[in-house]
Amino acid sequence: xxxxxxxxxTVGGLPVRLVSCLGSSLYPIVGYIDxxxxxxxxxxxxxxxxxAARSAFDLVEVxxxxxxxxxxxxxxxxxxxxxxxTIHATKAHADAFFKQYDRSNGLVDVVxxxxxx
Length: 117
Description:
Layout: E1 8-10, E2 15-20, E3 29-33, E4 40-42, E5 59-61, E6 65-73, E7 82-83, H1 91-98, E8 107-116
Antiparallel strand pairs: 1-2, 1-5, 2-3, 3-4, 6-7, 6-8
């Protein structure tokens, strides 16, 4: 079952506003596509048409892109090649945090990472 508190679009890229998961047994997800005034229904897995393999109106979860900064170590502090376990919101914050560790402690660099949630 889809989590209606998350953000979705259609496969075709139209914005969707989900309002309920209490529709019919076959189509329990209820919401509105784009600026439509008439509600649309989907299966619990987000399919618009149970007979079609894929529909332009099927739901796709919108992922949020995130980024952060981590320290990369070669030796010393973490005893083997590793990436630090703290993700910092900005490079400036990461640089200030890692300034206390000099290169002899194995800090190679502060690098940007990106992921989706």
